[in-house]
Amino acid sequence: MALATSLDAPLPAERTHIFLLSLRAAADQASLPPTDMERAEAEASAPHLREGFLARRRLLRRAVGLRLGASPGDVLIARDAQGAPRVTSAREPIFVSLAARGELVAIALSDRPVGVDVEPIEATAAPAWNILHPGERDWLRAQRAEEQAEKFLALWCIKEAYLKAIGLGLRREPAKIAVNFFDGADRISVEDAGRVVALDSAFVTRTEAHGVPAVVACVVLVR
Ligand SMILES: CC(C)(COP(=O)(O)OP(=O)(O)OC[C@H]1O[C@@H](n2cnc3c(N)ncnc32)[C@H](O)[C@@H]1OP(=O)(O)O)[C@@H](O)C(=O)NCCC(=O)NCCS
Q1: Residue 36 — very low, low, confident or very high, per pLDDT cuts 50/70/90?
Q2: What's the half-sphere exposure (Cβ side, CA atoms, 13 Å) at 91?
Q3: Cβ distance 132 to 177 under 8 Å?
Q4: How far apart are CA 205 and CA 198, in angstroms?
Q5: 108 CA to centre of ligand 1 in angstroms
């Protein structure tokens, strides 16, 4: 799974595409007017959240349009009953996931259920041990002290990506989900309530995009 940092280049033929985009790049509202559904959701949300929401939707519709060879103006995004974004305008199956932190917007697209998360790396952040599974706590305690904060972010990003891929988010208790790394961090497994989850793929990386160092993770389920 490669990470694209713009919506300008053609996409390689892959099952799953991940984008790490700049929110500022989507500032120009006139370039892609909101759909009626987006306008209604923006109007129903707090004023300080509107602009960010509409900018994220512009990026999401452009990314979906790029993958499907469709005009972003024809892409319709709704939400399911749990709040997960769903493409309602495509004939072929396409799953989408989105995460935003400050300037960064991560988007993942796949033909299988997908989840994505992004967390900026902040020097002062300490691990939130309480959201970790006991096995993850043991693993993290065994890591070098100076690497723990970033390794915590990797665990958390994968966990949140998984929670989005199953469409429930934090309705599930995060400490019941265990992320395991094998072969360094090359192979990842997820256990949910003690059962190994069948994953199509899982990916986590440290990157710097649009001037922000960040950890990005993506999880694709086997349907
Ligand atoms: C999904 C969730 C974990 C995202 O958390 P977050 O750290 O605040 O925000 P992120 O930037 O990482 O992700 C936000 C995106 O998650 C997506 N999302 C929301 N609910 C989702 C769900 N049930 N499944 C998958 N994705 C979901 C949306 O695309 C949202 O972006 P959008 O509003 O622009 O469409 C969280 O919103 C959640 O758990 N929602 C469902 C349950 C809920 O609403 N609980 C109340 C708070 S505990």
Answers
A1: very high
A2: 2
A3: no
A4: 21
A5: 14
Residue 27 in this model has a pLDDT that exceeds 80: no
Which domains, ranges and CATH numbers included, belong to the chain? Answer: 3-113 (3.90.470.20), 117-221 (3.90.470.20)
This prediction has a pTM of: 0.96
23 CA distance to ligand 1 middle (Å): 17
Tell whether ligand 1 has an atom less than 6 A from the beta carbon of residue 34: no
Sort 88 into a burial class: Cβ within 10 Å, 0-12 / 13-18 / 19+: exposed
C-beta of residue 107 within 8 angstroms of C-beta of residue 18: yes
Residue recorded with tokens 């602009």: 51
User: Rounded to whole angstroms, how far apart are CA atoms 71 and 65?
Assistant: 5
Q: How confident is the model over 45-57, as pLDDT tens digits? A: 999 999 999 999 9
pLDDT at 123 over 80: no
Name which residue sits closest to atom 12 of ligand 1, judged by CA: 99
Q: Which two tokens stand for residue 122?
A: 């902040």
DSSP lists the bridge partners of residue 104 as: 22, 101
Tokens of 153: 């972010």
